[in-house]
Amino acid sequence: xxxxxxxxxxxxxxxxxxxxxxxxxxxxxxxxxxxxxxxxxxxxxxxxxxxxxxxxxxxxxxxxxxxxxxxxxxxxxxxxxxxxxxxxxx
Length: 90
Ligand SMILES: [Zn+2]
Fold this sequence. Notes:
Structural class: mainly beta
Strand content: 35-45%
Bound molecules: zinc ion
Helix content: 10-25%
Number of strands: 6
Distance between the termini: 23 Å
Strand order of the largest sheet: 1-2-3-6
Number of helices: 1
């Protein structure tokens, strides 16, 4: 069984404060996350191994964006998101 079947997948936006390396302006950006919430029970069709893995599984979210466009109108450069955890348990 694909481990993704342990989770209900949804999308979420979360704000993060980022600092543009070009113009050094810091602003709040809404970042896109995929939220994988663990299901209440193992979906049908799981075997012994799935049961063990499912028991240990935890809800988590993964950052989808890796770049943002600077909000400073005089800059507008795209830069890499850094200093943000790209994966978090919830
Ligand atoms: Zn900038």
